[in-house]
Write a structure and sequence with these properties.
Elements (H helix, E strand, L loop, with lengths): L10 E2 L1 H13 L4 H7 L3 H6 L4 E2 H15 L4 H8 L6 H9 L3 H11 L7 E7 L3 E8 L8 H16 L7 E6 L8 H8 L2 E3 L5 E6 L13 H15 L6 H11 L8 H7 L4 H10 L4 H19 L4 H7 L5 H12 L3 H19 L31 H4 L2
Parallel strand pairs: 5-6
Antiparallel strand pairs: 1-2, 3-4, 4-7, 5-7
Helix pairs in contact: 5-8, 6-7, 6-10, 11-14, 15-16
């Protein structure tokens, strides 16, 4: 597997999107038309680039407007295979023990997604995978979050062929369909209005250090390849830099020398380490500035000139040029798009307050009834038009 280009926006590996499109095609949707409807998506897929969360969100919304299946995300997860998560999926599936699989997941999940981080809570007889979003949760379709959780459930169940049993799935949102059907689709108890989105696996009776059905030779070869791609020794210097940047005061504009000093490294050494991980200090700093800008766009009424100053630009035009480079859109247009989508999602969730949870969506028709008259479009064109 060669390195796949990713940008500043929270995004996901193109292999996930290709699997998603294959599922949509099997669901008798015109996946090519859906791709063409999302501006810029085809170019990213043709170049094997990572796909921003906002594009995956729009693709999901447009697919839902065609299928009107409230369980689409859950059902996609049930159909995935190791290729959905690129090389990481194959490594986890071939791991010779649960401990090895968990170790790789901790170190290498950044190889497939920056939309959210999978946090592992390991107990004596269970493992809980918690989805911590980087792209704002309130802007993500609930169906897309369900797809992520369902995919991790399917992948976790295949670790080393152990068939680890999922015992509980939790979602922050309210059900968009029948809660009983959720439990049928996922094969375990499902809880809504939870503080976290997560899936819990029981390891009762499983010796996590014992070799099992995984292929050790395949696992070691793939692991070596992945760690080379991520950087020497898998130190994950990028993550260390991100932690330093995240802990700095928002108004502080750090230099590479400042961050290198906090990590106990020389700036030249830091630059080389980041380059080996296909990253750079500028890219990571740009990502921090983008996320700060995104937060200010969402949570304040500051104009772009004030936002530019707060995130470290000398003037609004400098922010505009950077934002165009990061997203392909001017910041004012991007902000308007976010506001349209947030208003639409609030209406669909039945509550206008931030972070609220929704009642069942009213657009859901009876399942598998293809003879029903077409209801109003689930996704109004203006919600995603630019």
């Amino acid at each position: 597997m060669s390195f796949v280009k990713q940008g500043v926006e929270p995004s996901i590996h193109c292999s996930f999107v290709f699997s998603y499109l294959a599922y949509l095609r099997e669901s008798r949707l015109d996946e090519q038309a859906l791709v063409d409807a999302v501006k810029g998506l085809r170019e990213l897929l043709d170049e094997r680039c990572w796909v921003p969360a906002r594009m995956l969100n729009e693709l999901t919304a447009r697919a839902l407007s065609e299928t009107r299946d409230p369980y689409m995300g859950l059902r996609f997860g049930a159909e995935i295979d190791a290729s959905t998560y690129s090389i990481l999926g194959y490594i986890v599936s071939s791991a010779p023990s649960v401990e090895e699989a968990l170790s790789v997941l901790r170190k290498a999940q950044r190889a497939v997604s920056s939309i959210g981080e999978l946090q592992l809570v390991v107990e004596e007889d269970a493992v809980t995978c918690v989805f911590k979003d980087n792209w704002p949760r309130k802007l993500m379709l609930d169906h897309l979050v369900e797809a992520f959780i369902s995919c991790w459930k399917a992948l976790g169940s295949r670790i080393s062929g152990i068939k680890a049993r999922a015992t509980l799935v939790t979602f922050k949102h309210a059900p968009v369909g029948d809660p009983v059907q959720y439990e049928k689709e996922l094969g375990c108890r499902v809880s809504f209005h939870s503080p976290v989105d997560s899936v819990r696996f029981s390891l009762e009776g499983v010796n996590r250090e014992t070799l099992c059905v995984g292929d050790t030779l395949v696992f070691e070869a793939l692991k070596e390849r992945l760690l080379k791609m991520l950087g020497p020794g898998s130190r994950n210097v990028s993550a260390q830099v991100n932690r330093v940047l995240a802990n700095l005061p928002g108004e502080l504009f750090p230099s590479m020398e400042m961050v290198a000093s906090q990590l106990g490294m020389e700036p030249i050494e830091l630059g080389k380490q980041l380059k080996s991980e296909h990253a750079s200090f500028r890219m990571l700093l740009d990502r921090r500035k983008f996320m700060q800008t995104l937060a200010l766009m969402q949570t304040t009424k500051l104009d772009l000139a004030a936002i530019a100053v707060q995130v470290g630009f000398s003037e609004q035009s400098a922010l505009s040029r950077a934002f165009q480079r990061w997203t392909g859109m001017p910041p004012a247009q991007y902000r308007e798009m976010l506001q349209r989508q947030e208003r639409w999602l609030r209406r669909q969730r039945g509550d206008s307050s931030l972070g609220s949870l929704s009642p069942e969506l009213s657009w859901v028709p009876a399942l598998n009834n293809r003879n029903l008259p077409t209801p109003r479009s689930f996704v109004p064109e203006e919600a995603f038009s630019r």
